[in-house]
Amino acid sequence: MLTIEGIDAGYGATTILQGVSLEVKAGEVVTIVGANGAGKSTTLRTIAGLITPTAGRISFEGQDITRTAAHEVVDLGITLIPEGRQLFPDMTVRENLLMGAYRKAARAAQAETLEEVLQLFPRVRERMNQQASSLSGGEQQMVAIARGMMARPKLLMFDEPSLGLAPIIVSQVFEVIGKIAATGTTVLIVEQNVFSTLKASDRGYVLENGEIALSGAAEALLRDDHVRQAYLGI
Amino acid sequence: MNIFLQLVANGLMLGGLFAIISIGLTLIFGIVKVVNFAHGEFLMAGMYLTWIITVGLGLHPYVTVLAVAPFLFVLGAMTQRFLIQPLLLARDDHVQIFATVGLSTALINLALLIFGADIANTPASGLRAPVQIGPVRILEGQVYIFIAAVLLVIGLQLFLSRTQTGRAIRAVAQNRAAAQLMGINVDRIYVLSFGIGAACVGLAASLVAPLYPVSSTIGTYFVLTAFVVVVLGGLGSIVGAFVGAMIIGLIDSMAGFYIGSDLREAVVFGVFLVILILKPSGLFGTRVSLSHIS
Ligand SMILES: Nc1ncnc2c1ncn2[C@@H]1O[C@H](COP(=O)(O)OP(=O)(O)O)[C@@H](O)[C@H]1O
Ligand SMILES: [Mg+2]
């Protein structure tokens, strides 16, 4: 579904990713594991079109999207739920969700999608007319996920969805991601809870200093000595 | 008492004038985050166009808004697309300041070249006639400007809150990267917003032209007050600009009478500085990051 071949990418003159290749197949849950600053967010932003790679190639469902602008990537069925939620603070929850369905195809199905999404987030339904900035961190994360789903993506990317949340909320977030994956949506996820995420994933990549150091089936990575030492603290 | 009421009426009318000139400026700043130093010259261009059409075709000055607002929309949109947008890549905000200052100077010189140094009087069409409202007398044209300013504020609020495009504009103003992730073409929203902001000053131009003679420097005359109003109201806040304009209008009117017309400007700027010291984000600016459109 998504194929990345040898991309270099970064910010201005600074190259962060060096020759990164990875693949996500339809229906899979794939995780990228790596230390702080390894380039995980940069990878997701590059796929989303916010950063244009300086080398290599990205394709989605056979179509070259290496240089496709972020707003057009959304049309193809790729949505990124960014690190730090990034809601529109002075808009209501409802308005935030409607922005998720901004593109034409999603807008046509807006009402149905909203109903489906709210089934998954009863708490969000209660908050529909509140300003996004007035919600708690956990609620904001739920709105961010719900907003991402409003685009009806084929590939949904999560960047640190549990960052800064209380443990009980973290387990709710994981539950929701599990449900999304169960509906057949393909998931690419970056998470600090490496163990839980690998448990819930089919495959994983280990990113170190902007390069893929290791990849494989999630169970294999869970058993790998290097992964256990460096990321699971075992 | 009657004098006081007359001063209040004068202040509100002046406020309406300041408001209608300032709204486009605050809109552009709030969304595109660019201070358009050519805003006054946009007004000047609109007033010249109003004058040309009114004199040339013998139309009522208000009718010209049908041409002036679209003309300014295009001028604003082109400014964003061909001047500001290429400079965004420069990643240095100062370059944009110089660019709009340069545009301002270029437009003034262009006006001098085309129209010379003389002032041009748009026919008043009865708009300079005083009307008696209760105990106060104001100019008919001032009343229309005030009403237009109120309607513009309401209209923009409805547009920004009720339409998909309006919400997209607010989304871009509040979080540019997140807006891109929603599939919003941010560059296009910027061009559109600059155009709308400029069209607002086009509306102002057609309304102001019958009351004030236009010259190449008219923009400089008005725009300083517009900047005061916009900063006072909270950069980017439309309602704030309206309220700020009323405050400045009232102070201007009162100070002119009670303190002396020579000191009017000194008092206006004095109050402005005091408010800024007490509340640096302006009356309606909720955050200094200016991410907010209300
Ligand atoms: N906007 C930016 N501008 C410049 N450098 C950045 C920016 N964002 C991240 N970086 C740098 O890129 C590197 C990788 O960051 P990131 O992809 O966010 O890592 P991760 O998500 O794995 O923690 C870090 O060294 C970081 O400092
Ligand atoms: Mg990150």
Automatic annotation (TrEMBL), chain A:
One of its GO terms (biological process) is L-amino acid transport. SMART domains: AAA. GO terms for molecular function: ATP binding; ATP hydrolysis activity; branched-chain amino acid transmembrane transporter activity. Residues 2-234 form the ABC transporter domain. CDD domains: ABC_TM1139_LivF_branched (cd03224). The keyword rRNA processing does not apply. InterPro entries: AAA+_ATPase, ABC_transporter-like_ATP-bd, ABC_transporter-like_CS, BCAA_Transport_ATP-bd_LivF, P-loop_NTPase. It comes from the Bacteria. SUPFAM superfamilies: P-loop containing nucleoside triphosphate hydrolases (SSF52540). Keywords: Amino-acid transport, ATP-binding, Nucleotide-binding, Transport. Pfam families: ABC_tran. The keyword S-adenosyl-L-methionine does not apply. PANTHER family: HIGH-AFFINITY BRANCHED-CHAIN AMINO ACID TRANSPORT ATP-BINDING PROTEIN LIVF. Belongs to the ABC transporter superfamily. This is Branched-chain amino acid ABC transporter ATP-binding protein. It comes from Cereibacter changlensis JA139. The lineage of its organism: Bacteria, Pseudomonadati, Pseudomonadota, Alphaproteobacteria, Rhodobacterales.
From TrEMBL, chain B:
GO terms for molecular function: transmembrane transporter activity. Keywords: Amino-acid transport, Cell membrane, Membrane, Transmembrane, Transmembrane helix, Transport. It is found in: Cell membrane. One of its GO terms (biological process) is amino acid transport. Pfam families: BPD_transp_2. One of its GO terms (cellular component) is plasma membrane. Signal peptide: none annotated. The chain crosses the membrane at residues 12-35, 65-83, 95-117, 143-160, 189-212, 218-251, 263-284. It is a multi-pass membrane protein. Belongs to the binding-protein-dependent transport system permease family. LivHM subfamily. PANTHER family: AMINO ACID ABC TRANSPORTER PERMEASE PROTEIN, BRANCHED-CHAIN AMINO ACID TRANSPORT SYSTEM PERMEASE PROTEIN LIVH. This is Branched-chain amino acid ABC transporter permease. It comes from Cereibacter changlensis JA139.
